């Protein structure tokens, strides 16, 4: 036990000597990532407030009722906040659509309103440049279909009311009032349609909002980048010292823990500094710590598999980029292929992401903790095996 504490004391002294350089690299990486996240959030907020889909209207819009309907759609309907309707010629619509300036355009057939009056139904046509199987065109086509159905049903209702008025010899005054009330009812149904359904926001991924999702993602990315910044401390250039210590009775498992604990402590200090700058308490750091343990155990194994600092950095970078992509740190997980979505739940970075997501949602994350401890223990065992074989293969070094 005395040998273990003596060894870990030496490793702490080494860590303290390396920490100023590590801290500089850590600060540069952290500031860069935080700046990037801030710019990304500001850009996203600006887009949400300004971006609207522009849809062209092509055809004869001089008919009174159609013109009134379009004016109402532009100024009274809730769609005015996310859809902009612009009147134009078909040639202009085609050109702007191909240039990507339009989301699509609607072809209104000649005599559209007149055909409705006489019981005919000339269909509206929606033209889009995107794949018709994608979400945008499907949604627009569905809107056009619903509008057409509304026109047909409204038409049937009005003609039905005319038939009833003629059948029961209703006075003109009563008939006109009934037609007016019916039109008002139809307009109310269309303009107040949001009251007929309930919107549930499930978040960008893991039940998180856009900002929380990427805060969680970049927090994990920071931990991985901090681990790479420790390459000068964690890369072992020679196994000679370990071989000598082992021959003098030092436990290989004890030396392994003596190397890992200072590494974990440095990463925890970095996280503690970040938590303090975020105006969070020590309780937040304690809740985040399991994710730090998992990721540092994984990176510790990668250092044990490396033989020099160049190999260490390259291996760490490759694993960081690959696991970050596969776990949805760069793009929302739902945008990735289905097989990657399934596999990401079993990857160490994906597990850490899931755990931090639960913490951000105010939960305990107990369901993910068993996986974290199993993976962390497995990484340390594999690190022991890797060091054992390195000592044996380099016994004549």
Structure notes:
Helix content is 69%, strand content 5%. It has 397 residues and is mostly helical. The chain has a four-stranded mixed β-sheet, with helices on both faces. The chain starts with a helix and ends with a helix. The relative contact order is 0.09.
Report a brief summary of the structure.
The chain has 397 residues and is mainly alpha-helical. It has helices at 2-50, 64-75, 90-98, 112-117, 135-167, 172-191, 210-229, 231-234, 240-247, 252-277, 282-304, 309-326, 338-344, 348-360, 369-393, and strands at 53-59, 83-87, 104-108, 125-127.
Lay out the secondary structure.
Layout: H1 2-50, E1 53-59, H2 64-75, E2 83-87, H3 90-98, E3 104-108, H4 112-117, E4 125-127, H5 135-167, H6 172-191, H7 210-229, H8 231-234, H9 240-247, H10 252-277, H11 282-304, H12 309-326, H13 338-344, H14 348-360, H15 369-393
Parallel strand pairs: 1-2, 1-3
Antiparallel strand pairs: 3-4
Helix pairs in contact: 1-7, 1-10, 5-6, 7-11, 7-12, 7-14, 10-11, 11-14, 11-15, 14-15
Q: How many structural units, i.e. domains?
A: 2
Shape: elongated
Question: Which structural class is indicated by helix and strand composition?
Answer: mainly alpha
Q: What portion of residues is helical? A: 55-70%
- On the 0 to 100 scale, the average pLDDT is 77
SSE string: HEHEHEHEHHHHHHHHHHH
Ranges where pLDDT stays below 50 over 5 or more residues in a row are none
Distance between the termini: 28 Å
Biggest sheet record: 4 strands, mixed
The assembly state of the depicted protein chains is: single chain
Gyration radius (Cα, Å) is 33 Å
> Care to count the β-strands?
4
What's the total helix number? 15
**Biggest sheet, spatial arrangement of strands:** 2-1-3-4
The percent range for strand residues is: 5-15%
């Amino acid at each position: 036990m005395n040998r273990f504490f003596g060894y870990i004391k030496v490793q702490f002294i080494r860590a303290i000597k390396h920490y100023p350089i590590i801290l500089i690299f850590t600060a540069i990486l952290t500031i860069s990532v935080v700046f990037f996240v801030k710019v990304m959030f500001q850009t996203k907020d600006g887009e949400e407030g300004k971006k609207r889909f522009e849809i062209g209207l092509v055809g004869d819009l001089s008919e009174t009722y159609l013109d009134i309907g379009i004016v109402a759609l532009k100024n009274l309907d809730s769609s005015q906040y996310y859809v902009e309707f612009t009147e134009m010629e078909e040639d202009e619509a085609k050109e702007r659509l191909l240039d990507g300036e339009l989301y699509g355009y609607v072809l209104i057939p000649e005599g559209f309103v007149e055909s409705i009056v006489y019981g005919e139904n000339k269909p509206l046509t929606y033209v889009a440049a995107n794949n018709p199987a994608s979400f945008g065109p499907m949604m627009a086509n569905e809107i056009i279909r619903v509008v057409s159905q509304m026109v047909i049903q409204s038409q049937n209702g009005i003609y039905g009311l005319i038939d009833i008025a003629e059948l029961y010899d209703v006075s003109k005054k009563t008939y006109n009032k009934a037609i007016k009330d019916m039109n008002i009812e139809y307009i109310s149904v269309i303009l107040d349609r949001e009251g007929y359904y309930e919107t549930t926001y499930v978040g960008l991924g893991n039940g998180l909002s856009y900002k929380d999702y990427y805060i969680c993602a970049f927090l994990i990315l920071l931990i991985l980048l901090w681990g790479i910044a420790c390459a000068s401390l964690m890369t072992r250039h020679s196994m000679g010292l370990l071989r000598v210590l082992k021959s003098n009775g030092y436990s290989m498992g004890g030396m392994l823990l003596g190397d890992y604990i200072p590494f974990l402590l440095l990463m925890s200090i970095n996280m503690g500094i970040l938590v303090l700058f975020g105006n969070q308490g020590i309780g937040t750091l304690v809740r985040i710590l399991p994710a730090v343990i998992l990721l540092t155990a994984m990176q510790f194994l990668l250092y044990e598999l490396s033989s020099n600092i160049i190999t260490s950095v390259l291996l760490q970078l490759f694993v960081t980029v690959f696991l970050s992509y596969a776990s949805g740190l760069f793009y929302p997980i739902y945008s990735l292929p289905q097989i990657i979505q399934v596999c990401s739940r079993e990857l160490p970075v994906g597990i850490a992401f899931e755990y931090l997501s639960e913490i951000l949602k105010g939960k305990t994350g107990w369901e993910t903790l068993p996986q974290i401890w199993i993976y962390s223990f497995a990484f340390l065992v594999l690190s022991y095996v890797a060091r054992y074989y390195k000592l044996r293969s380099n016994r004549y070094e």
